[in-house]
Amino acid sequence: LDWFWQELLSSEVPRLLEDLLGDPESYVRASAVRTWGRFSLMAYSGPEAPVCKSNENPKELCIGGVRLLEILSSDAEGFPRRAAIGVFLDWLKEGHPEASASPAEFVSRALQAVDGDLDWEVKMAALDLVGVFIGQTFGRLGQSSTSAGSSLANLADVLRLFGQMKMLGFLFRALQDCDRPVAVKACEVLLALKSAVCKHRSKSSPSGDASGLKEVPTESSSSSLSSLPAGEAAEKDCQDPERLRRILEFTDLEGLQRALDVSSDHLER
């Protein structure tokens, strides 16, 4: 099908899609973003991907991450932003070159763009993006670990990376979101991270204690949330792999999840 791709790429379709990204109607822009994202994924990641010539610039043919970030951070309407973060998610899942080249940077830029976004669907998709990234990262960690010692060292590196990306701060803020679905999703992602951390922690690692952390009560979601780090303290704690591990292991996320399951859709914070 190389002939098909060459004809398609040399046609007016790419230019038409790029023009539609600036359409005054938000749903048209959103459709263009989704189509661009799928088109780019098929063109550069699929089994029938065309062989690009050395003088071809992929970003001239298909929308790049920079343009997606621009839409994600600056479009005034929710539909295009939802579409853009959805493309980020698809690209990470399916191994688009812009995602696979540096997954951590790819995800980090997306999170910076959506941080503070008030659209709950954008936040939900961003949390899905984080969940996929965590799963992929620990999947590679499991493949590369050959001994308990290397597993512990790699785990520390992974947690340090998450801290540098400010990913945990994003999750903790989402956990305190006033929209219940967002808080539930953040709790699910943190529980998956907690499970992965416990699984990969070396048996010879000192268990440590929760010194320096507030005791986490389980009676209500508000008291559980109050025990989590916030602001500058959160940024500092998330930069320390051992302290971050303790926060994850000693926070009663299971109790918080049960409390969220019986909460109303809008949470008072």
TrEMBL record:
Q: Which domain of life is it from?
A: Eukaryota
Q: Where is this region: Disordered?
A: 201-240
Regions that span the bilayer: none
Q: Give the UniProt keywords, A-Z.
A: Cytoplasm
> InterPro entries of this UniProt entry?
ARM-like, ARM-type_fold, BRAT1
UniProt keyword Cytoplasm, yes or no: yes
Task: Say where the protein is mainly found.
Answer: cytoplasm
Q: Could you confirm whether the keyword Cytoplasm appears in this record? A: yes
Give a GO cellular-component term.
Answer: cytoplasm
Sequence similarity: Belongs to the BRAT1 family.
According to UniProt, the name of this protein is BRCA1-associated ATM activator 1-like
User: Which species does the entry assign this protein to?
Assistant: Notechis scutatus (mainland tiger snake)
- Recorded name of the encoding gene: LOC113431646
